[in-house]
Write a structure and sequence with these properties.
The complex is a heterodimer of chains A (304) and B (322).
Chain A (H helix, E strand, L loop, with lengths): L6 H13 L3 H11 L1 H23 L2 H5 L25 H37 L1 H15 L3 H11 L5 H11 L2 H14 L3 H9 L3 H38 L10 H6 L4 H6 L1 H29 L7
Helix pairs in contact in A: 2-14, 3-5, 3-14, 5-6, 5-8, 5-9, 5-11, 5-14, 6-9, 7-8, 9-11, 10-11, 11-14
Chain B lengths: L1 H28 L4 H5 L8 H11 L5 H13 L13 H36 L4 H15 L2 H15 L18 H20 L3 H14 L3 H8 L4 H19 L1 H18 L5 H10 L3 H29 L7
The chains are: A mainly alpha (304), B mainly alpha (322).
Protein backbone atom coordinates (compact mmCIF):
# COMPACT_ATOMS: atom_id res chain seq x y z
CA UNK A 1 0.00 0.00 0.00
CA UNK A 2 1.36 3.34 -0.97
CA UNK A 3 0.83 6.17 1.45
CA UNK A 4 0.18 9.58 -0.04
CA UNK A 5 2.51 12.31 1.13
CA UNK A 6 0.94 15.45 2.44
CA UNK A 7 1.77 18.69 0.68
CA UNK A 8 3.99 19.69 3.57
CA UNK A 9 5.92 16.47 3.37
CA UNK A 10 6.36 16.84 -0.38
CA UNK A 11 7.69 20.34 0.12
CA UNK A 12 10.11 19.13 2.76
CA UNK A 13 11.31 16.28 0.54
CA UNK A 14 11.91 18.68 -2.34
CA UNK A 15 13.89 20.94 -0.09
CA UNK A 16 16.07 18.09 1.21
CA UNK A 17 16.70 16.90 -2.35
CA UNK A 18 17.66 20.39 -3.44
CA UNK A 19 20.08 20.76 -0.54
CA UNK A 20 21.52 17.31 -1.03
CA UNK A 21 24.14 18.25 -3.57
CA UNK A 22 26.45 15.75 -5.18
CA UNK A 23 30.07 15.67 -3.99
CA UNK A 24 31.23 17.28 -7.23
CA UNK A 25 28.82 20.16 -6.66
CA UNK A 26 30.00 20.54 -3.09
CA UNK A 27 33.63 20.67 -4.24
CA UNK A 28 32.81 23.27 -6.87
CA UNK A 29 30.88 25.32 -4.34
CA UNK A 30 33.81 25.15 -1.92
CA UNK A 31 36.38 26.15 -4.53
CA UNK A 32 34.20 28.99 -5.80
CA UNK A 33 34.00 30.43 -2.32
CA UNK A 34 37.69 30.09 -1.57
CA UNK A 35 39.56 32.78 -3.48
CA UNK A 36 42.96 31.11 -3.24
CA UNK A 37 41.67 27.70 -4.33
CA UNK A 38 39.80 29.32 -7.21
CA UNK A 39 42.92 31.12 -8.41
CA UNK A 40 44.90 27.89 -7.99
CA UNK A 41 42.40 25.99 -10.11
CA UNK A 42 42.50 28.72 -12.75
CA UNK A 43 46.32 28.81 -12.93
CA UNK A 44 46.57 25.01 -13.02
CA UNK A 45 43.99 24.81 -15.81
CA UNK A 46 45.83 27.43 -17.87
CA UNK A 47 49.21 25.70 -17.41
CA UNK A 48 47.76 22.32 -18.29
CA UNK A 49 45.90 23.64 -21.33
CA UNK A 50 49.10 25.19 -22.67
CA UNK A 51 51.12 22.08 -21.81
CA UNK A 52 48.69 19.68 -23.50
CA UNK A 53 47.68 21.77 -26.48
CA UNK A 54 50.91 23.49 -27.49
CA UNK A 55 52.84 20.28 -28.31
CA UNK A 56 50.18 19.60 -30.94
CA UNK A 57 51.30 22.72 -32.81
CA UNK A 58 55.01 22.49 -32.07
CA UNK A 59 57.07 20.33 -34.34
CA UNK A 60 58.84 18.02 -31.89
CA UNK A 61 61.40 16.63 -34.33
CA UNK A 62 62.21 20.14 -35.52
CA UNK A 63 62.61 21.55 -32.02
CA UNK A 64 64.51 18.47 -30.87
CA UNK A 65 67.12 18.88 -33.57
CA UNK A 66 70.54 19.98 -32.39
CA UNK A 67 71.46 23.37 -33.81
CA UNK A 68 74.98 24.46 -32.98
CA UNK A 69 74.55 28.01 -34.19
CA UNK A 70 71.95 28.65 -31.48
CA UNK A 71 73.66 27.26 -28.36
CA UNK A 72 72.64 28.81 -25.02
CA UNK A 73 70.76 31.75 -26.50
CA UNK A 74 69.13 33.86 -23.79
CA UNK A 75 65.37 34.43 -24.03
CA UNK A 76 64.30 36.37 -27.10
CA UNK A 77 61.28 36.85 -29.36
CA UNK A 78 62.29 33.80 -31.37
CA UNK A 79 63.08 31.57 -28.39
CA UNK A 80 60.79 32.64 -25.55
CA UNK A 81 62.88 30.94 -22.92
CA UNK A 82 66.18 30.72 -24.78
CA UNK A 83 67.95 27.55 -25.89
CA UNK A 84 70.00 24.77 -24.26
CA UNK A 85 73.46 23.38 -24.99
CA UNK A 86 72.18 21.75 -28.17
CA UNK A 87 70.48 24.92 -29.39
CA UNK A 88 67.04 23.45 -28.70
CA UNK A 89 64.14 25.66 -27.66
CA UNK A 90 63.59 25.56 -23.88
CA UNK A 91 59.94 26.61 -24.03
CA UNK A 92 59.03 23.57 -26.14
CA UNK A 93 60.90 21.28 -23.77
CA UNK A 94 59.21 22.94 -20.80
CA UNK A 95 55.75 22.30 -22.21
CA UNK A 96 56.51 18.71 -23.19
CA UNK A 97 58.12 18.17 -19.79
CA UNK A 98 55.13 19.61 -17.92
CA UNK A 99 52.79 17.41 -19.93
CA UNK A 100 54.85 14.25 -19.33
CA UNK A 101 55.37 14.95 -15.61
CA UNK A 102 51.68 15.63 -15.06
CA UNK A 103 50.46 12.65 -17.08
CA UNK A 104 52.85 10.24 -15.39
CA UNK A 105 52.01 11.71 -11.99
CA UNK A 106 48.32 11.07 -12.65
CA UNK A 107 48.93 7.50 -13.88
CA UNK A 108 51.07 6.65 -10.83
CA UNK A 109 48.49 8.19 -8.51
CA UNK A 110 45.69 6.18 -10.11
CA UNK A 111 47.52 2.84 -10.09
CA UNK A 112 48.84 3.22 -6.54
CA UNK A 113 45.39 4.52 -5.56
CA UNK A 114 43.67 1.40 -6.89
CA UNK A 115 46.23 -0.83 -5.14
CA UNK A 116 45.89 1.02 -1.83
CA UNK A 117 42.11 1.15 -2.12
CA UNK A 118 41.75 -2.55 -2.92
CA UNK A 119 44.07 -3.75 -0.18
CA UNK A 120 42.74 -1.24 2.36
CA UNK A 121 39.12 -2.22 1.64
CA UNK A 122 39.84 -5.94 1.95
CA UNK A 123 41.83 -5.49 5.15
CA UNK A 124 39.25 -3.25 6.80
CA UNK A 125 36.16 -5.09 5.56
CA UNK A 126 37.16 -8.60 6.57
CA UNK A 127 39.03 -7.56 9.73
CA UNK A 128 40.33 -10.28 12.02
CA UNK A 129 43.15 -12.47 10.77
CA UNK A 130 43.17 -11.07 7.22
CA UNK A 131 43.48 -7.58 8.65
CA UNK A 132 46.20 -8.62 11.08
CA UNK A 133 48.38 -10.18 8.39
CA UNK A 134 47.92 -7.32 5.90
CA UNK A 135 48.60 -4.69 8.55
CA UNK A 136 51.81 -6.38 9.72
CA UNK A 137 52.99 -6.49 6.10
CA UNK A 138 52.14 -2.80 5.67
CA UNK A 139 53.87 -1.94 8.97
CA UNK A 140 56.98 -3.48 7.50
CA UNK A 141 56.65 -1.86 4.08
CA UNK A 142 56.15 1.56 5.69
CA UNK A 143 59.62 1.49 7.27
CA UNK A 144 61.46 0.67 4.04
CA UNK A 145 63.77 3.39 2.69
CA UNK A 146 61.46 3.96 -0.30
CA UNK A 147 63.45 6.52 -2.28
CA UNK A 148 66.62 4.41 -2.18
CA UNK A 149 64.73 1.26 -3.20
CA UNK A 150 63.10 3.06 -6.14
CA UNK A 151 66.55 4.14 -7.34
CA UNK A 152 67.95 0.61 -6.92
CA UNK A 153 65.02 -0.88 -8.88
CA UNK A 154 65.38 1.73 -11.63
CA UNK A 155 69.01 0.73 -12.05
CA UNK A 156 68.64 -3.07 -11.97
CA UNK A 157 65.43 -3.44 -14.01
CA UNK A 158 66.35 -4.74 -17.46
CA UNK A 159 65.05 -2.73 -20.45
CA UNK A 160 64.01 0.22 -18.34
CA UNK A 161 61.27 2.38 -19.87
CA UNK A 162 58.42 4.68 -18.85
CA UNK A 163 56.14 1.78 -17.93
CA UNK A 164 58.71 0.11 -15.70
CA UNK A 165 59.19 3.45 -13.95
CA UNK A 166 55.44 3.79 -13.40
CA UNK A 167 55.32 0.20 -12.14
CA UNK A 168 58.18 0.67 -9.67
CA UNK A 169 56.72 3.90 -8.30
CA UNK A 170 53.19 2.50 -7.97
CA UNK A 171 54.36 -0.66 -6.20
CA UNK A 172 56.33 1.31 -3.61
CA UNK A 173 53.85 4.14 -2.96
CA UNK A 174 50.51 2.61 -1.91
CA UNK A 175 51.18 1.63 1.71
CA UNK A 176 50.08 4.81 3.45
CA UNK A 177 46.89 4.95 1.42
CA UNK A 178 45.95 1.35 2.21
CA UNK A 179 46.37 2.04 5.93
CA UNK A 180 44.20 5.16 5.74
CA UNK A 181 41.40 3.44 3.81
CA UNK A 182 41.55 0.39 6.05
CA UNK A 183 40.91 2.46 9.19
CA UNK A 184 37.89 4.17 7.60
CA UNK A 185 36.54 0.84 6.31
CA UNK A 186 36.87 -0.69 9.78
CA UNK A 187 34.54 1.99 11.12
CA UNK A 188 32.22 1.74 8.12
CA UNK A 189 31.65 -2.01 8.32
CA UNK A 190 30.15 -1.68 11.81
CA UNK A 191 27.30 0.44 10.39
CA UNK A 192 23.80 -0.91 9.91
CA UNK A 193 23.64 -0.69 6.14
CA UNK A 194 26.52 -3.15 5.79
CA UNK A 195 24.88 -5.59 8.17
CA UNK A 196 21.57 -5.19 6.38
CA UNK A 197 23.18 -6.00 3.03
CA UNK A 198 24.92 -9.02 4.50
CA UNK A 199 21.65 -10.31 5.87
CA UNK A 200 20.06 -9.89 2.45
CA UNK A 201 22.79 -12.10 1.04
CA UNK A 202 24.67 -9.53 -1.04
CA UNK A 203 28.10 -10.92 -1.92
CA UNK A 204 30.99 -9.34 -0.01
CA UNK A 205 32.71 -7.89 -3.08
CA UNK A 206 29.48 -6.13 -4.04
CA UNK A 207 29.12 -4.60 -0.59
CA UNK A 208 32.73 -3.44 -0.67
CA UNK A 209 32.60 -2.00 -4.17
CA UNK A 210 29.08 -0.56 -4.40
CA UNK A 211 28.26 0.27 -0.78
CA UNK A 212 31.34 0.85 1.34
CA UNK A 213 33.44 2.42 -1.42
CA UNK A 214 30.98 5.20 -2.33
CA UNK A 215 30.83 6.15 1.33
CA UNK A 216 34.58 6.56 1.64
CA UNK A 217 35.10 7.94 -1.86
CA UNK A 218 35.48 11.54 -0.66
CA UNK A 219 38.39 10.46 1.53
CA UNK A 220 39.93 8.67 -1.46
CA UNK A 221 39.57 11.73 -3.69
CA UNK A 222 41.15 14.05 -1.10
CA UNK A 223 44.00 11.66 -0.50
CA UNK A 224 44.65 11.11 -4.21
CA UNK A 225 44.68 14.83 -4.98
CA UNK A 226 47.30 15.48 -2.32
CA UNK A 227 49.24 12.40 -3.45
CA UNK A 228 49.29 13.66 -7.03
CA UNK A 229 51.35 16.66 -5.94
CA UNK A 230 53.70 14.41 -3.97
CA UNK A 231 54.11 11.98 -6.85
CA UNK A 232 54.98 14.74 -9.31
CA UNK A 233 57.57 15.91 -6.80
CA UNK A 234 59.12 12.45 -6.45
CA UNK A 235 59.13 11.83 -10.21
CA UNK A 236 60.80 15.14 -11.09
CA UNK A 237 63.25 14.69 -8.21
CA UNK A 238 64.27 11.23 -9.41
CA UNK A 239 64.55 12.44 -13.00
CA UNK A 240 66.68 15.32 -11.72
CA UNK A 241 69.07 12.82 -10.10
CA UNK A 242 69.10 10.79 -13.33
CA UNK A 243 67.06 7.84 -12.04
CA UNK A 244 63.63 8.80 -13.26
CA UNK A 245 62.10 8.97 -16.70
CA UNK A 246 64.33 7.77 -19.56
CA UNK A 247 65.76 10.41 -21.87
CA UNK A 248 63.23 9.65 -24.58
CA UNK A 249 60.51 11.01 -22.26
CA UNK A 250 61.76 14.39 -21.02
CA UNK A 251 60.20 15.60 -17.79
CA UNK A 252 60.46 18.87 -15.88
CA UNK A 253 63.21 17.16 -13.89
CA UNK A 254 65.27 16.71 -17.08
CA UNK A 255 65.48 20.48 -17.60
CA UNK A 256 66.32 21.07 -13.94
CA UNK A 257 69.05 18.42 -14.04
CA UNK A 258 71.03 20.65 -16.45
CA UNK A 259 71.58 22.90 -13.41
CA UNK A 260 73.96 20.32 -11.99
CA UNK A 261 76.49 21.94 -14.30
CA UNK A 262 77.77 25.00 -12.35
CA UNK A 263 78.01 27.15 -15.49
CA UNK A 264 74.37 26.50 -16.42
CA UNK A 265 73.31 27.11 -12.85
CA UNK A 266 75.15 30.41 -12.55
CA UNK A 267 74.87 31.97 -16.01
CA UNK A 268 72.07 30.19 -17.88
CA UNK A 269 69.19 30.50 -15.48
CA UNK A 270 66.62 30.29 -18.31
CA UNK A 271 67.45 26.62 -18.79
CA UNK A 272 66.46 25.39 -15.33
CA UNK A 273 64.65 28.14 -13.44
CA UNK A 274 61.37 28.13 -15.46
CA UNK A 275 61.01 24.37 -14.97
CA UNK A 276 61.69 24.70 -11.22
CA UNK A 277 59.09 27.45 -10.88
CA UNK A 278 56.60 25.42 -12.95
CA UNK A 279 56.94 22.50 -10.52
CA UNK A 280 56.54 24.85 -7.58
CA UNK A 281 53.44 26.52 -9.00
CA UNK A 282 51.82 23.25 -10.12
CA UNK A 283 52.40 21.57 -6.76
CA UNK A 284 51.19 24.58 -4.83
CA UNK A 285 48.02 24.79 -6.95
CA UNK A 286 47.27 21.08 -6.55
CA UNK A 287 47.78 21.38 -2.79
CA UNK A 288 45.42 24.33 -2.47
CA UNK A 289 42.77 22.58 -4.54
CA UNK A 290 43.31 19.45 -2.44
CA UNK A 291 42.74 21.42 0.76
CA UNK A 292 39.51 22.87 -0.65
CA UNK A 293 38.30 19.37 -1.57
CA UNK A 294 39.25 18.21 1.92
CA UNK A 295 37.06 20.90 3.44
CA UNK A 296 34.25 20.01 1.06
CA UNK A 297 34.43 16.38 2.19
CA UNK A 298 34.01 17.33 5.84
CA UNK A 299 30.81 19.24 6.54
CA UNK A 300 32.22 20.76 9.73
CA UNK A 301 35.08 22.45 7.90
CA UNK A 302 33.11 23.92 5.00
CA UNK A 303 33.34 27.63 4.47
CA UNK A 304 29.60 28.17 4.10
CA UNK B 1 54.03 -0.83 29.90
CA UNK B 2 56.99 -3.24 30.04
CA UNK B 3 55.10 -5.78 27.92
CA UNK B 4 54.40 -3.13 25.29
CA UNK B 5 58.08 -2.21 25.09
CA UNK B 6 59.18 -5.84 24.89
CA UNK B 7 56.57 -6.60 22.25
CA UNK B 8 57.59 -3.56 20.23
CA UNK B 9 61.26 -4.62 20.35
CA UNK B 10 60.35 -8.18 19.31
CA UNK B 11 58.41 -6.85 16.29
CA UNK B 12 61.60 -5.15 15.16
CA UNK B 13 63.56 -8.40 14.77
CA UNK B 14 61.50 -9.96 11.94
CA UNK B 15 61.40 -6.51 10.28
CA UNK B 16 65.19 -6.30 10.29
CA UNK B 17 65.54 -9.89 9.04
CA UNK B 18 63.02 -9.34 6.25
CA UNK B 19 64.78 -6.13 5.23
CA UNK B 20 68.13 -7.94 5.09
CA UNK B 21 66.65 -10.76 2.96
CA UNK B 22 65.16 -8.27 0.49
CA UNK B 23 68.43 -6.38 0.23
CA UNK B 24 70.43 -9.58 -0.14
CA UNK B 25 68.19 -10.77 -2.97
CA UNK B 26 68.38 -7.33 -4.61
CA UNK B 27 72.16 -7.43 -4.30
CA UNK B 28 72.11 -10.84 -6.02
CA UNK B 29 69.95 -9.38 -8.79
CA UNK B 30 72.43 -6.57 -9.34
CA UNK B 31 74.90 -7.34 -12.11
CA UNK B 32 78.41 -8.36 -10.98
CA UNK B 33 79.70 -9.97 -7.79
CA UNK B 34 82.80 -9.74 -5.62
CA UNK B 35 84.89 -11.45 -8.31
CA UNK B 36 83.94 -9.20 -11.23
CA UNK B 37 84.85 -6.22 -9.11
CA UNK B 38 88.20 -7.45 -7.93
CA UNK B 39 89.33 -8.61 -11.39
CA UNK B 40 87.65 -5.92 -13.44
CA UNK B 41 89.89 -4.80 -16.26
CA UNK B 42 92.52 -7.43 -15.45
CA UNK B 43 93.35 -9.18 -18.76
CA UNK B 44 95.37 -11.93 -17.04
CA UNK B 45 92.38 -13.38 -15.24
CA UNK B 46 91.25 -16.51 -17.08
CA UNK B 47 87.83 -18.07 -16.80
CA UNK B 48 88.87 -21.34 -15.10
CA UNK B 49 90.84 -19.54 -12.47
CA UNK B 50 87.92 -17.22 -11.75
CA UNK B 51 85.59 -20.19 -11.42
CA UNK B 52 87.98 -21.73 -8.89
CA UNK B 53 88.05 -18.59 -6.77
CA UNK B 54 84.29 -18.32 -7.04
CA UNK B 55 83.94 -21.87 -5.69
CA UNK B 56 86.39 -21.12 -2.87
CA UNK B 57 84.52 -17.94 -1.89
CA UNK B 58 81.27 -19.85 -1.79
CA UNK B 59 79.59 -17.91 -4.59
CA UNK B 60 78.22 -21.17 -6.01
CA UNK B 61 76.53 -22.21 -2.75
CA UNK B 62 72.73 -22.11 -2.42
CA UNK B 63 71.42 -18.63 -1.70
CA UNK B 64 70.42 -19.21 1.92
CA UNK B 65 73.96 -20.31 2.81
CA UNK B 66 75.35 -17.25 1.11
CA UNK B 67 72.75 -15.13 2.86
CA UNK B 68 73.68 -16.51 6.28
CA UNK B 69 77.34 -15.79 5.64
CA UNK B 70 76.59 -12.30 4.31
CA UNK B 71 74.41 -11.41 7.28
CA UNK B 72 76.94 -12.81 9.76
CA UNK B 73 79.71 -10.74 8.22
CA UNK B 74 77.49 -7.68 7.99
CA UNK B 75 76.58 -7.77 11.66
CA UNK B 76 80.28 -8.02 12.50
CA UNK B 77 80.96 -4.93 10.43
CA UNK B 78 82.43 -6.67 7.38
CA UNK B 79 80.36 -5.34 4.47
CA UNK B 80 82.65 -6.44 1.67
CA UNK B 81 84.86 -4.51 -0.71
CA UNK B 82 83.99 -1.54 -2.88
CA UNK B 83 84.90 -2.30 -6.52
CA UNK B 84 85.37 1.33 -7.38
CA UNK B 85 87.18 2.67 -4.33
CA UNK B 86 89.13 -0.57 -3.82
CA UNK B 87 88.71 -0.36 -0.07
CA UNK B 88 86.54 -1.84 2.64
CA UNK B 89 82.94 -0.63 2.51
CA UNK B 90 82.91 -0.21 6.27
CA UNK B 91 85.85 2.21 6.28
CA UNK B 92 84.39 4.05 3.27
CA UNK B 93 81.12 4.53 5.14
CA UNK B 94 82.86 5.52 8.35
CA UNK B 95 84.63 8.33 6.49
CA UNK B 96 81.33 9.76 5.23
CA UNK B 97 79.10 9.06 8.22
CA UNK B 98 80.42 12.00 10.26
CA UNK B 99 79.42 14.54 7.62
CA UNK B 100 75.89 13.15 7.25
CA UNK B 101 75.40 13.02 11.02
CA UNK B 102 76.62 16.60 11.34
CA UNK B 103 74.24 17.75 8.59
CA UNK B 104 71.29 15.82 10.02
CA UNK B 105 71.79 17.11 13.55
CA UNK B 106 72.21 20.69 12.32
CA UNK B 107 69.05 20.31 10.21
CA UNK B 108 67.00 18.94 13.10
CA UNK B 109 68.15 21.69 15.48
CA UNK B 110 67.30 24.34 12.87
CA UNK B 111 63.88 22.76 12.28
CA UNK B 112 63.12 23.01 16.00
CA UNK B 113 64.46 26.56 16.19
CA UNK B 114 62.10 27.63 13.41
CA UNK B 115 59.05 25.51 14.04
CA UNK B 116 58.61 25.65 17.82
CA UNK B 117 58.35 29.48 18.07
CA UNK B 118 56.20 29.66 14.91
CA UNK B 119 53.95 26.82 16.10
CA UNK B 120 53.45 28.54 19.44
CA UNK B 121 52.69 31.91 17.83
CA UNK B 122 50.21 30.35 15.40
CA UNK B 123 48.51 28.32 18.13
CA UNK B 124 48.37 31.06 20.74
CA UNK B 125 47.08 33.77 18.41
CA UNK B 126 44.92 31.42 16.37
CA UNK B 127 43.29 33.14 13.35
CA UNK B 128 45.39 36.29 13.73
CA UNK B 129 47.41 37.67 10.80
CA UNK B 130 50.54 36.04 12.28
CA UNK B 131 48.78 32.68 12.30
CA UNK B 132 47.67 33.13 8.70
CA UNK B 133 51.25 33.96 7.73
CA UNK B 134 52.55 30.81 9.42
CA UNK B 135 49.84 28.68 7.79
CA UNK B 136 50.69 30.10 4.35
CA UNK B 137 54.39 29.42 4.94
CA UNK B 138 53.43 25.87 5.87
CA UNK B 139 51.42 25.38 2.68
CA UNK B 140 54.28 26.62 0.53
CA UNK B 141 56.83 24.50 2.42
CA UNK B 142 54.61 21.43 2.04
CA UNK B 143 54.33 21.94 -1.71
CA UNK B 144 58.01 22.64 -2.36
CA UNK B 145 60.11 19.65 -3.42
CA UNK B 146 63.40 19.62 -1.54
CA UNK B 147 65.59 19.52 -4.66
CA UNK B 148 63.93 22.56 -6.23
CA UNK B 149 64.29 24.53 -3.01
CA UNK B 150 67.93 23.49 -2.52
CA UNK B 151 68.76 24.53 -6.10
CA UNK B 152 67.12 27.92 -5.70
CA UNK B 153 68.93 28.49 -2.37
CA UNK B 154 72.23 27.50 -4.02
CA UNK B 155 71.53 29.83 -6.94
CA UNK B 156 70.65 32.84 -4.77
CA UNK B 157 73.04 32.56 -1.81
CA UNK B 158 75.82 30.51 -3.36
CA UNK B 159 76.14 31.85 -6.90
CA UNK B 160 74.40 35.23 -7.15
CA UNK B 161 75.23 36.69 -3.74
CA UNK B 162 78.29 34.53 -3.10
CA UNK B 163 77.72 34.51 0.65
CA UNK B 164 78.44 30.85 1.17
CA UNK B 165 80.64 28.18 -0.45
CA UNK B 166 78.88 26.12 -3.10
CA UNK B 167 80.48 22.66 -2.87
CA UNK B 168 82.11 20.30 -0.42
CA UNK B 169 82.06 20.12 3.36
CA UNK B 170 85.25 22.05 4.11
CA UNK B 171 87.87 24.19 2.38
CA UNK B 172 90.63 21.77 1.30
CA UNK B 173 93.32 24.34 2.09
CA UNK B 174 92.23 24.62 5.72
CA UNK B 175 94.47 22.72 8.11
CA UNK B 176 92.72 19.94 9.99
CA UNK B 177 91.98 20.98 13.55
CA UNK B 178 92.78 24.66 13.10
CA UNK B 179 90.34 27.48 13.83
CA UNK B 180 89.88 28.16 10.10
CA UNK B 181 89.00 24.52 9.59
CA UNK B 182 86.01 24.69 11.89
CA UNK B 183 84.88 28.06 10.54
CA UNK B 184 85.06 26.70 7.00
CA UNK B 185 83.16 23.58 8.04
CA UNK B 186 80.42 25.68 9.59
CA UNK B 187 80.19 27.90 6.51
CA UNK B 188 79.85 24.86 4.25
CA UNK B 189 77.09 23.59 6.48
CA UNK B 190 74.85 26.69 6.35
CA UNK B 191 73.20 26.29 2.93
CA UNK B 192 72.62 22.50 3.02
CA UNK B 193 71.16 22.83 6.52
CA UNK B 194 68.83 25.70 5.68
CA UNK B 195 67.71 23.98 2.45
CA UNK B 196 66.57 20.97 4.42
CA UNK B 197 65.28 22.80 7.48
CA UNK B 198 63.19 25.62 6.04
CA UNK B 199 60.88 23.22 4.21
CA UNK B 200 61.24 20.45 6.82
CA UNK B 201 59.25 22.30 9.46
CA UNK B 202 55.78 21.41 8.17
CA UNK B 203 54.97 18.46 10.43
CA UNK B 204 56.20 20.07 13.64
CA UNK B 205 54.47 23.41 13.09
CA UNK B 206 51.20 21.73 12.14
CA UNK B 207 51.29 19.43 15.16
CA UNK B 208 52.19 22.16 17.63
CA UNK B 209 49.61 24.61 16.28
CA UNK B 210 46.75 22.10 16.36
CA UNK B 211 47.77 20.80 19.76
CA UNK B 212 47.86 24.27 21.33
CA UNK B 213 44.51 25.21 19.77
CA UNK B 214 43.02 22.03 21.25
CA UNK B 215 44.69 22.30 24.64
CA UNK B 216 43.99 25.94 25.35
CA UNK B 217 40.27 25.22 25.70
CA UNK B 218 40.76 22.35 28.14
CA UNK B 219 39.59 22.56 31.73
CA UNK B 220 42.99 22.46 33.40
CA UNK B 221 44.04 25.51 31.38
CA UNK B 222 40.88 27.34 32.47
CA UNK B 223 41.65 26.39 36.05
CA UNK B 224 45.14 27.79 35.73
CA UNK B 225 43.76 31.04 34.33
CA UNK B 226 41.10 31.21 37.03
CA UNK B 227 43.80 30.83 39.66
CA UNK B 228 45.35 33.97 38.20
CA UNK B 229 48.34 32.48 36.43
CA UNK B 230 49.69 35.11 34.01
CA UNK B 231 48.88 34.36 30.35
CA UNK B 232 52.52 33.85 29.36
CA UNK B 233 53.03 31.35 32.15
CA UNK B 234 49.85 29.47 31.20
CA UNK B 235 51.52 28.76 27.88
CA UNK B 236 55.02 27.94 29.08
CA UNK B 237 54.09 25.95 32.16
CA UNK B 238 50.74 24.40 31.43
CA UNK B 239 50.17 24.04 27.70
CA UNK B 240 53.64 23.57 26.25
CA UNK B 241 54.69 20.99 28.77
CA UNK B 242 52.13 18.67 27.19
CA UNK B 243 52.99 19.52 23.61
CA UNK B 244 56.77 19.58 23.50
CA UNK B 245 57.48 16.00 24.53
CA UNK B 246 55.71 14.32 21.57
CA UNK B 247 57.66 16.61 19.24
CA UNK B 248 60.90 15.23 20.61
CA UNK B 249 59.51 11.74 20.16
CA UNK B 250 58.69 12.36 16.48
CA UNK B 251 62.43 12.50 15.84
CA UNK B 252 62.49 8.80 15.08
CA UNK B 253 59.84 9.19 12.39
CA UNK B 254 61.78 12.06 10.84
CA UNK B 255 64.74 9.80 10.02
CA UNK B 256 63.13 8.77 6.71
CA UNK B 257 62.78 12.42 5.76
CA UNK B 258 66.35 13.16 6.75
CA UNK B 259 67.64 10.27 4.62
CA UNK B 260 65.55 11.31 1.60
CA UNK B 261 66.62 14.92 2.07
CA UNK B 262 70.27 14.01 2.41
CA UNK B 263 70.23 12.15 -0.93
CA UNK B 264 69.06 15.29 -2.75
CA UNK B 265 70.81 17.97 -0.72
CA UNK B 266 74.17 16.22 -0.59
CA UNK B 267 74.15 15.68 -4.36
CA UNK B 268 73.20 19.28 -5.06
CA UNK B 269 75.84 20.75 -2.73
CA UNK B 270 78.41 18.01 -3.51
CA UNK B 271 78.52 17.45 0.24
CA UNK B 272 80.57 14.30 0.93
CA UNK B 273 78.09 12.35 3.06
CA UNK B 274 76.26 9.04 2.80
CA UNK B 275 73.53 10.37 0.49
CA UNK B 276 76.06 11.55 -2.06
CA UNK B 277 77.97 8.27 -1.67
CA UNK B 278 74.74 6.41 -2.48
CA UNK B 279 74.20 8.35 -5.71
CA UNK B 280 77.88 8.03 -6.68
CA UNK B 281 77.93 4.31 -5.98
CA UNK B 282 74.75 3.57 -7.88
CA UNK B 283 75.99 5.63 -10.83
CA UNK B 284 79.25 3.65 -10.93
CA UNK B 285 77.35 0.40 -10.26
CA UNK B 286 79.31 -0.14 -7.04
CA UNK B 287 76.66 -2.45 -5.64
CA UNK B 288 78.35 -3.64 -2.43
CA UNK B 289 78.33 -0.03 -1.24
CA UNK B 290 74.74 0.45 -2.43
CA UNK B 291 73.38 -2.57 -0.59
CA UNK B 292 75.29 -1.65 2.57
CA UNK B 293 73.83 1.87 2.45
CA UNK B 294 70.26 0.69 1.85
CA UNK B 295 70.61 -1.82 4.68
CA UNK B 296 71.93 0.79 7.12
CA UNK B 297 69.28 3.37 6.17
CA UNK B 298 66.53 0.77 6.47
CA UNK B 299 67.81 -0.35 9.86
CA UNK B 300 68.04 3.29 11.01
CA UNK B 301 64.40 3.86 10.04
CA UNK B 302 63.24 0.65 11.76
CA UNK B 303 65.10 1.43 14.98
CA UNK B 304 64.04 5.10 14.88
CA UNK B 305 60.37 4.21 14.41
CA UNK B 306 60.59 1.76 17.28
CA UNK B 307 62.13 4.36 19.61
CA UNK B 308 59.46 6.91 18.64
CA UNK B 309 56.69 4.38 19.24
CA UNK B 310 58.05 3.53 22.68
CA UNK B 311 58.61 7.14 23.75
CA UNK B 312 55.14 8.14 22.54
CA UNK B 313 53.56 5.23 24.38
CA UNK B 314 55.18 6.48 27.58
CA UNK B 315 53.97 10.03 26.94
CA UNK B 316 50.50 9.03 25.84
CA UNK B 317 49.22 5.78 27.40
CA UNK B 318 46.26 5.57 24.98
CA UNK B 319 48.63 4.36 22.26
CA UNK B 320 49.57 1.30 24.28
CA UNK B 321 46.18 -0.44 23.97
CA UNK B 322 47.06 -2.07 20.66
Amino acid sequence: MKTELTVDQQEALKKVKAENKSFAQTIWHEIKNDKVAFIALFILTVIMLIAYISPLFLDQTESGRVNFSQIYKPPSAEFWLGTDRGGRDIFTQLMIGARNSFTIGVVITLISGVLGLGIGLISGYYGGKVDFVIMRVIDFLMVLPTLMLIIVFVVIVPKFNVWSFIGIMSILLWFGKARLIRSRTLAERELDYVNASKTLGTPNWKIMLFEVFPNISSLVIVNMTLNLAGNIGIETGLTFLGFGLPESTPSLGTLISYAQHPDVMENKWWVWLPASLTILVVMLCINYIGQAIKRASDARQRLT
Amino acid sequence: MITFIIRRILVMIPQLLLLSIIIFLLAKAMPGDAITGAFQGNPDADANHLEEIKEKMGLNDPWYQQYGRWLGNFVQGDMGMSYVHKQKVSSLLAGRLGNTLLLSIATMITIYLISIPLGIIAGRWHNSWADKLVVTYNYVALATPVFVFALIMLFIFGFSLGWFPITGSVDIRAENGSWEYYISKAKHLVLPTLSGAIIGTVGTIQYLRNDIIDTKLKDFVKTARAKGVPEGRVYTRHILRNSILPIAAFLGYEITLLITGSVFIESIYSYPGLGKLFIESISTRDFTVVSALVMISGAAVIVGTMLSDIILSIVDPRIRID
